[in-house]
Amino acid sequence: MDRGSFLGRFIARRLVQAVPTLFGVLLLTFLLGRLSPSDPLQLMLAGQYDVTPEDRESLRHSLGLDQPLPIQFLAWLWQIAHLNFGNSFYFNRPVLDIIVERIPNSLQISMIALIITVLVGVPLGVFAALRRGRIEDHVIRVVSVAGHAVPQFWLGLIFVLTLSVQLRAFPVGSMNAVGIDCGLCWDRIWHLIGPVAVISIAGIANLPRILRTEVLEVIAQDYVRTARSKGLKERMIVARHILRNALIPVVTSFGTILLVFFSGSLIIERVFNWPGLGRLTFEAAVGKDFPVVQAGVVISSVLLILSYLVRDIAYAWVDPRIKVR
Amino acid sequence: MAVGAQTATRPLELPQPRGSAGLWSTAWYSLRRDRLTMAAGAVVLLIILLSVGAPLLAEYVFRTTFDKQDLLHTYGAPTLDPPAYLLGSDEVGRSQVVRLFYGGQVSLFVGFVAAFIQLTIGVLLGLMAGYFRGRVDDLITWFITTLNSIPTIFLLIIISALFAPGPITLTIIIGTIFWTGITNFVRGQTFALREREFVTAARTVGATSWRIMLRHILPNVLPLIFVLTAIDVGTIILAESALSYLGLGIVPPTPSWGNMLTNAASYFNRAPWLVASPGAMIFLTVLCLYLVGDGLRDALDPRLKSR
Lengths: 325, 307
Fold this sequence. Notes:
The complex is a heterodimer of chains A (325) and B (307). Chain A is mainly alpha-helical and 325 residues long. Chain A is built from twelve helices and no strands. Chain A has helices at residues 3-35, 40-44, 53-62, 69-81, 95-130, 135-149, 152-166, 186-219, 222-229, 234-271, 277-286, 290-318. The two termini of chain A are 15 Å apart. Chain B has 307 residues and is mostly helical. Chain B has helices at residues 2-9, 23-33, 35-52, 54-60, 96-132, 134-148, 152-163, 167-177, 180-193, 197-204, 209-245, 257-266, 273-300. The two termini of chain B are 19 Å apart.
């Protein structure tokens, strides 16, 4: 079987496997919204006093809220299948429009942070393994454990309070200075530094530890000894023989890193006042704006499932030993 | 055999263990030489003692309570006189250090109790998935992949915002969300262990499935579960503090490390030190828990021992 059709089958299989997961996410999201003690009607009609009980009932009926739960769930699935997440109670606009505006803002932070994580984390991991047991190795270990343990919101808070508020070296929040509106220019980069730095720390805490273990496994392999005995330069051995093989399992760890980024983004967007998907979902949850909350969870989960998919495909692509299971 | 060879070459250095050296005594032996882990463990113990003893400390050392206000001494800088303002005073003149210890009670309670809940759920589901396989495994794996596909903090924030739980309910909710890691681990181990001879032997003499799971498989998995749990306590404390910082977890007037930071951030211009101590406490506690977990793993994992 040639490589192309193998990858095709692999992707198809993974897509099918994602269906029950997506169903689970949808079911959980639906139940959370419906089982919550707050009544959506109450929230929709907040501030309107001329509502008669009959109006209430007819609105309840027109929203389908008087139907049994399974029927409501199916109706909701049907809507979502048509990409209709309803209207936001708060913005009174289609939820999907609001969310689609926010997604690029969140992805911008995560993607840049991912690149920085790889650029910093890979050398650190290899270095730690090559200096195993020495002081450099211990320092990298302690630093990466520290990166795990530090509360991200606290780091972000300190960044904003000291560098932005006190020293005025960085902007206090949001994506652009007033009057500037650009996707990627110096002004945006200036605003990105804080959130990206804080988020990257979480990734950099993860990657070197995983890579270190892999490099140590590879160093013990026979082909590395062969390369050494051939008299290859150390740099050549590290780049061509060790790193290439050690990086393959590391691809899997991107799942963890992405999950950390997605979770972290919510808090970081809040601290840096960044108008992303996480902050939107948070504010909607506090304001009990159910349609936005549900869509926020569903869409961030879909993004996460998709990135798991990309990770698995990348893994299958770089490692010829993977077979369709 | 390996032990015999070692004793033969270095008979004087190793103290002779009485009887055979068990897993725990060997682990303890290598732990004692791991200074970093021992120090981290000592710090965790100290933080637990300070938090549990917070009422006594407040009364006899700092001579104040966690909610005693003093409007004449607001935003006080850290000072030794009076000792209550060791770490400064907050916007209504309450003692920061006493509130920090009381906050520790809440954060540690949530961390340890929720970790215990998720440990129980995780171990049971993991054993069942790995032992029964088939439908049971499919169902449990489906739970795991679903939960892992929703960013944890999103789930926590939504549940807290919609249901407004108290501290106890919050602990239970966190416990029922975080179990997937332990389940995955136990499931994998059980898969391998159930094919071993001692399980077949137990089955031959008529042991029931549950007896095999709890008496024969579980003891083999348990040591490394402690490692995962130590790390999870840290992760849960981090999650709780983030949630409380956002105003959704532990709500004032109950102090928690997270919600102390919410206030402190607004008064940064007048009292920057108020931002430092709660964050530092979270950081220190979680860091030490992670280091203890790491050290335990090294001590318990026979593969890493040759290091």
